Structure formats: structure tokens, C-alpha cells
TrEMBL record, chain A:
One of its GO terms (cellular component) is mitochondrial small ribosomal subunit. It comes from the Eukaryota. This is Ribosomal protein S24/S35 mitochondrial conserved domain-containing protein. GO terms for biological process: mitochondrial translation. InterPro entries: Ribosomal_mS35_mt (IPR039848). Coiled coil: none annotated. It comes from Oncorhynchus mykiss (Rainbow trout). Residues 39-76 are annotated as: Disordered. GO terms for molecular function: structural constituent of ribosome. Residues 64-76 have a biased composition (Basic and acidic residues).
UniProtKB/TrEMBL annotation, chain B:
InterPro entries: P-loop_NTPase, Ribosomal_mS29, Ribosomal_mS29_met. Belongs to the mitochondrion-specific ribosomal protein mS29 family. This is Small ribosomal subunit protein mS29. One of its GO terms (cellular component) is mitochondrial small ribosomal subunit. It is found in: Mitochondrion. It comes from the Eukaryota. One of its GO terms (molecular function) is structural constituent of ribosome. GO terms for biological process: apoptotic process. Keywords: Mitochondrion, Ribonucleoprotein, Ribosomal protein, Transit peptide.
């Protein structure tokens, strides 16, 4: 029967406090309890709910009480690296500091750390105390080689290693790992330290000639890859050419001669400059005005 | 001198800042769908439609008067910050064209064709394109209202076959085509394409020629992205829509005998930042290259004189009821709050 199995399961789990349906089922109605297979019918306790094991309609599974927070038992000279060995979210029961965070509502104070989501959301560096970092360094030491003893002054370092590369890393709380400023790398060479002038000249000459070489894939450069807008062979040029030709501005004649003549005209040059300015410099009122005047001149308005 | 009774054709520089009334009979024919919604409410409230004569519209009209219509079409682009009066200038120009007997092709908002379409049918004419029957039939209905008198005069130059049993023969009047498009909603997008093609071919014609004005509001919606999705949830590019494809052909300047007047609009545009108002920002590279070369016409906020005029008009119509608004102090407050932006001023005055 339902109540019988209920009671049996409770005893077998050995729980002390069981509050199912708000009634202490352990000894309801103060009847004598017998540890036998038979027992009296307590189906009235069920109140008509079907048996779901310990789940019940409200999942009132018996749970133990939360104990004291760890902070109460922390000695002052404890080893903090054991409390926060790795990067973990903030646990208010493990941090013995009276931290407050959040907006003070109604002229109050910032809310305390207990149950404070704001403290949990932010990144914390509790795992990186100086002691912890020291320990990390000690652990890494076996894998490191010694600093060369001969390089004890800055001047000696510069002499042997004239090229210095400086990279920057950024740490910030945000949606993305990447910081575009981290892509900038500084390479420093002191020119006075360059001993081998001939070699430097040789290198520069090689680079210069190398830059003139065309790779096969360079011919695949599309309009979208171009650094600057060039008016030649652009849709703008084609449009204006076809418009002018249809307007029969140049008079009779076909083909290249007409095109050359049209391109040479000052209005067309002005138009070309205004379009290039618009595309390269971006838009502004003044560039729009310039474009307007150029178009009006070209189209004879 | 607040009002002038001259129609757009006779207005000139000396009428800048004055209001002229659009005859009530013109409202239903010329503007079945073109006016901004708040202005339509104002017309209903004041029982008349008064439009201020402003510099951009006058400039456009003067260009239209002097242009040579045997040359390829000129494109004019109205641009300016939000609320500066681009749509109103466009409507003013459309009114002028209409009074001069032009055929007006007014697309009230090109953005309506690239978003919020409940029905997207695959086109029967071209396999990879999509039709928008509701939008097309709505537009055809309004087109019919605007250009009634042209519909019987223009004859088709080509035979159009819609289904196995239905076709429109050569030589039939355009009105028949439009009626067919309104009634047969399924093929209305193709009808729109056919109408545009016929008008393009016949616009500059010598026998029975007419001038064609293509007025597109929110032309930047034709290039860029749409919010429509195909059945497999991939986005639809604008050129895959029949209506957009045909309209782009109209905006090209390979036909003659008319003009293309367009405005940019950030309100209603998709994926454009709200501070964008310059042509290249809103049109994008593709749009700019298609429109190039065009004449950009900047529409600025009210000048001092125009603001005076607008303020006096509202006073005259007893729209400004609050006693403080009728004082000098109140006027200065209005200037400060609205920064002389026409639409902001209109909204502010609506509260007073």
C-alpha cells in the first residue's frame, strides 16, 4: 500500500527530519511503530496524491541543513592558496571579507555579499595572490634555464640583441577575448647600433626588388581589396561615359577617340575628382556639394 | 504674405516661405498614397492641405522645367536629416508634374516592398525571383487612381501572355493591363513589370508622347538587405524580388523623356544606423554606383523665415492654443526645443 511503502523508504534512508505534506510522517498520530512488514493503513496521510517516491507534487525532498560558512573556521594565518587554488567564481562562504557590492537602493548601503549576484558575475583574482604567484614561479623554475651571467648590464643586452620586439596583452572584462590593440607589435632597432651598413643596404635592395615581383595570386586582387578608390574602370566612369555618349555631347564619332576626348574635358575631370574624394575621404556636406556642382556642370544643367 | 494662390508651375523664388493650397480635388487623384501620415492627419484636421514653398522643391521644379527630354533621364536625389521635409518636397514636385500633365509613377515607400511581406510567391516568369502579390496589386490600384486619363491613351506595344488562356494583345490600352493586374492578384507583380517596361519605352516617344516622372521615396531600400526569408530560412536579396528588379530598371538612365526624383529615408530602412542621412551611407556602394551620376539636392531644416512662416500658419489655423505659445518667449522656446526641425516642430505644436 502507498503509505506503507512511503514509511519503509523513509526508514531505510535513515533521515531524521522528514516533512512530507507538512506532517511529521515518522510518527504520525503518535501510533506505536512496528518494524515489521505489516503496518496499519496510513493511506489517509497521502491526501490522495499518487506516490512519486520522495518527489511528491512539490519535490519536498528532505535536505540537510546548510552548515556554517567556512569563513567561521578560517584561521588568520591560513594558506589562502588552498581556498582558491584556481580561477573560480566568488563564493561568499569562502571569502572572509565583509565585501559589499551593488547599487544602494533607497539611500541604503550596497548589498552585502550573501546572495549577491553582482559579486559572482564579475571576474575575480582571488586565485592570484602574491603568494600564489610565488608558488607558480617555484613550480616553473625546474623548467627554466638560468639567465646568462654575461648579460648583466643593459648595455650588454643592447649590444648583443639590438632588435627589440614589444608585444602588448590586454586584460579586460568584455564579450570578447580579443582586443584589437593587442595586434600592434613594435619592433625597435637602434640605427646607431647597426654595425653592418652594407648588409643593411643589401637587405633593402633585395626587399625593394622583391616588392616588384608579382605573385600569381596577386592578379586575383579584386576591387574590394583595393586600398584606395580609383576612378578608372569603375562603374562611375562607365556610367558617366555612357550618359555623355548618349547625350551626344562630343558630336559625331565612335569608339576610342570620343572617349579620350570626353575624358579630357575639365568638367569630367572635376567629376572624377569629386567622386574619388567622396569614396576615399567619406562623405560630408562639403564633398556632397562638390559632387553636386561637378554633376551639374557635366550634365549641363 | 503667408499664402499664395499660385500652383507649383508659377511659383518662384519670391514665394519662398509662403504656403500654397493643394486643390481638394487633387488630393485623391495625385496623392492616394504618397503623403506622410502625420501630414494626412493635419490635412483632415485643418480641412485643407497647405504646402510650404521651399528651396529644394523649387530647385527641382526649375531643373525639370529646363531639362532637355531627348537626353537620358536625369536622376535627382533628395537627402537630409530626419524630419527635414524630403517627402514633402517630393510631393510638392509630384504635384507640379501632375499639374503639367506628366504621368506620375509614385512609389510611396520602397521599404514597404522589402519587409513585412506575408506572401512571397515564386515568380512564374523567372525561376529564381519572388513575387509579392499584395504589394503589387495595392500599388497598381493607386497607380490607376492617379493616372486615369492616361490609361486609355497609351497602347501596348507588345503582346503579354499571362497563362495558357489569358493574354493581353498588342494595341490594347494600358488600362486593361492594369485592371487585369488588380483583379488577378497572382500575376500582379509581372503586370507591374510590364507596365513599367511599356512606360519606359513610350515615354520619350514623338507620337502621343508624354513625360514620365518616377518618384520613389526611400530609394535606399532597393539596395541593401531585406528582412524576407525563403522557405529554407535563407535571406532574400533585393534583386530576387520582381518588383525591386523592375524598379531598379526604371531608375537606370537608359531611357529618356522623363525624370527620376528620389528621396533617401532612414526611417523604415533596414540595418541602417539612425544617424545616417548622407547618400553614400544609406545607398551603399551598389546603390551609389547605380544612381551615379545623380544630382543630390540637400533638404535642410527650416530657415528663420520658414520657421516664422510655419509658426504664423499654425497661429492662423488656431492650432497653437496655449497662451504662452503666442508670445515671443514661447516662440523662442519652440525654436530651441525643435531646433527648427519641421517634423519635431509639428509634433511639439500638436501638444499645445
Amino acid at each position: 500500500m502507498a503509505a506503507h511503502t512511503l514509511k519503509k523508504s523513509i526508514w531505510s534512508l535513515g533521515r531524521i527530519h522528514c516533512h512530507i505534506y507538512g506532517v511529521n510522517v515518522r510518527n504520525p498520530l503518535n501510533r506505536a511503530t512496528y518494524a515489521t512488514a505489516l503496518s496499519t493503513n496510513h493511506s489517509s496521510q497521502n491526501k490522495g496524491f499518487p506516490d512519486r517516491g520522495n518527489k511528491g507534487p512539490f519535490n519536498r525532498r528532505s535536505r540537510r541543513e546548510a552548515g556554517d560558512p567556512r569563513t567561521d573556521r578560517m584561521p588568520v594565518d591560513q594558506d589562502w592558496t588552498t581556498v582558491y587554488p584556481t580561477a573560480t567564481p566568488f563564493r561568499q562562504g569562502s571569502v572572509p571579507l565583509p565585501v559589499r557590492m551593488g547599487f544602494p537602493v533607497k539611500k541604503g548601503v550596497p548589498p552585502e555579499k550573501k546572495g549577491n549576484l553582482e559579486l559572482i558575475k564579475i571576474p575575480n583574482f582571488l586565485h592570484l595572490t602574491p603568494l600564489a604567484i610565488k608558488k607558480h614561479c617555484e613550480a616553473l623554475k625546474p623548467f627554466c634555464t638560468e639567465w646568462p651571467s654575461a648579460l648583466d648590464t643593459g648595455a650588454k643586452c643592447d649590444e648583443h640583441f639590438p632588435v627589440k620586439v614589444e608585444c602588448k596583452d590586454y586584460v579586460s572584462a568584455g564579450t570578447s577575448l580579443r582586443n584589437p590593440s593587442a595586434r600592434i607589435v613594435h619592433l625597435r632597432v637602434s640605427l646607431s647600433a647597426c654595425v653592418n651598413y652594407d648588409y643593411a643596404m643589401y637587405l633593402l635592395t633585395v626587399l625593394y626588388h622583391e616588392s616588384w615581383k608579382m605573385e600569381a595570386w596577386e592578379s586575383e586582387k579584386t576591387v574590394a581589396d583595393m586600398e584606395e578608390y580609383s576612378w578608372e574602370d569603375s562603374p562611375s566612369q562607365k556610367n558617366i561615359m555612357s550618359t555623355l555618349v548618349r547625350m551626344q555631347v562630343a558630336g559625331e564619332g565612335e569608339g576610342e577617340a570620343v572617349r579620350e576626348e570626353l575624358l579630357g574635358r575639365p568638367e569630367v575631370q572635376e567629376y572624377r575628382d569629386s567622386v574619388t574624394r567622396l569614396k576615399n575621404e567619406g562623405e560630408s556636406e562639403s564633398s556632397m556639394h562638390q559632387y553636386r556642382d561637378a554633376v551639374k556642370k557635366v550634365l549641363n544643367l | 504674405m503667408l499664402y499664395t494662390c499660385l500652383l507649383p508651375a508659377c511659383q518662384s523664388e519670391q514665394h519662398l516661405g509662403q504656403y500654397y493650397t493643394v486643390p481638394p480635388s487633387h488630393f485623391h487623384t495625385v496623392f492616394p498614397h504618397g503623403l506622410p501620415p502625420r501630414y494626412q492627419q493635419q490635412v483632415k484636421t485643418f480641412n485643407e492641405g497647405c504646402v510650404m514653398v521651399r528651396q529644394p522643391a523649387l530647385e527641382l521644379i526649375s531643373h525639370l522645367k529646363r531639362a532637355d527630354y531627348s537626353k537620358p533621364t536625369l536622376r535627382y536625389l533628395l537627402y537630409g536629416v530626419k524630419g527635414s521635409g524630403k517627402t514633402m518636397s517630393l510631393c510638392h514636385t509630384v504635384h507640379y508634374c501632375s499639374t503639367q500633365g506628366w504621368l506620375v509613377l509614385h512609389i510611396p515607400d520602397a521599404h514597404l516592398w522589402v519587409k513585412n511581406c506575408k506572401e512571397l510567391l515564386p515568380s512564374s516568369y523567372h525561376a529564381s525571383r519572388f513575387d509579392q502579390p499584395i504589394q503589387a496589386s495595392n500599388w497598381l490600384r493607386n497607380f490607376r487612381t492617379t493616372n486615369e486619363h492616361f490609361l486609355s491613351k497609351i497602347k501596348l506595344r507588345q503582346r503579354y501572355v499571362w497563362t495558357k488562356r489569358e493574354s493581353t494583345e498588342e494595341g490594347r490600352p494600358l488600362g486593361e493591363l492594369v485592371d487585369m493586374g488588380v483583379s488577378r492578384v497572382k500575376s500582379s507583380s509581372d503586370v507591374v513589370g510590364a507596365v513599367l517596361k511599356e512606360l519606359r519605352l513610350q515615354a520619350g516617344g514623338t507620337e502621343g508622347g508624354f513625360r514620365l516622372a518616377v518618384a520613389v521615396d526611400g530609394v535606399n531600400g532597393l539596395w541593401g538587405r531585406t528582412t524576407l526569408k525563403k522557405e529554407d530560412k535563407s535571406p532574400v536579396a533585393p534583386e530576387e524580388l520582381t518588383l525591386v528588379h523592375n524598379l531598379r530598371k526604371m531608375i537606370n538612365n537608359d531611357w529618356c523623356g522623363g525624370a527620376v526624383i528620389a528621396t533617401l529615408s532612414q526611417t523604415g530602412s533596414l540595418y541602417a544606423p539612425s544617424s545616417a542621412y548622407l547618400p553614400q551611407e544609406l545607398l551603399g556602394e551598389e546603390g551609389f554606383d547605380s544612381m551615379d551620376p545623380f544630382v543630390p539636392v540637400p533638404v535642410s531644416l527650416y530657415s528663420e523665415k520658414e520657421f516664422e512662416s510655419c509658426y504664423l500658419y499654425y497661429l492662423d489655423r488656431h492650432w497653437l492654443q496655449h497662451p504662452h505659445s503666442q508670445t515671443e518667449e514661447g516662440k523662442k522656446e519652440l525654436i530651441f526645443l525643435s531646433n527648427r526641425n519641421p517634423s519635431v516642430l509639428e509634433r511639439l505644436c500638436a501638444f499645445l
